[in-house]
């Protein structure tokens, strides 16, 4: 499935969406888009590390400490983070706290 991804003005950290494009066009053209990266810790502050699937287009099969992915068109970044935690790690109902916004 080629989902629509939210596009942003390069360097703008305000979060203003400027358009959309299919994921394939975003990847092919390296278009400015947002992504989430969630570091999951347990009650002892241990970090969850997982192995990326072999079908990923970036770092397939490698170990990763972050669950995340692109923010889809019309999706709030916090909703995207929660969705990625569920899709990639099967985790639901976590408190998500923003740490940084980086361009």
Instruction: Tell me the overall shape.
Output: globular
Q: What would you call the structural class?
A: alpha+beta
What share of residues is helical?
10-25%
- Are there runs of 5+ residues with pLDDT below 50, and where? none
Mean pLDDT: 91
Helical stretch count? 2
Cα-based radius of gyration, to the nearest Å: 14 Å
| Distance separating the two termini | 27 Å
Q: How many distinct beta strands?
A: 6
> Main sheet: which strands, in order across?
1-2
Q: What is the strand and helix layout of this fold?
A:
Elements: E1 4-8, E2 17-22, H1 23-29, E3 35-39, E4 50-51, E5 63-64, E6 66-70, H2 77-89
Antiparallel strand pairs: 1-2, 3-6, 4-5
Quick take:
The chain contains two helices and six strands, in the order ββαββββα.
General description of the model:
- The strands form 3 sheets. A two-stranded antiparallel ribbon has the order 1-2.
- It contains 2 helices and 6 strands; from the N terminus they run E-E-H-E-E-E-E-H.
- The two termini are 27 Å apart.
- Helix content is 19%, strand content 24%.
- The radius of gyration is 14 Å and the shape is globular.
- The longest helix is centred in the C-terminal third of the chain and has 13 residues, at 77-89.
- A hairpin with an 8-residue loop joins strand 1 (4-8) and strand 2 (17-22).
- The model has no long low-confidence stretch (mean pLDDT 91).
């Amino acid at each position: 499935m080629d989902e629509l991804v939210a596009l942003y003005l390069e360097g703008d950290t305000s979060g203003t969406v400027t358009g959309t494009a299919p994921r394939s066009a975003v990847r092919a053209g390296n278009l400015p888009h947002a992504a989430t990266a969630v570091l999951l810790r347990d009650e002892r502050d241990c970090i969850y590390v997982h192995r990326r699937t072999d079908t990923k287009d970036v770092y397939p099969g490698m170990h990763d400490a972050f669950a995340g992915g692109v923010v889809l068109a019309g999706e709030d970044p916090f909703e995207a983070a929660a969705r990625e935690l569920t899709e990639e790690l099967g985790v639901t109902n976590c408190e998500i706290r923003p740490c940084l916004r980086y361009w």
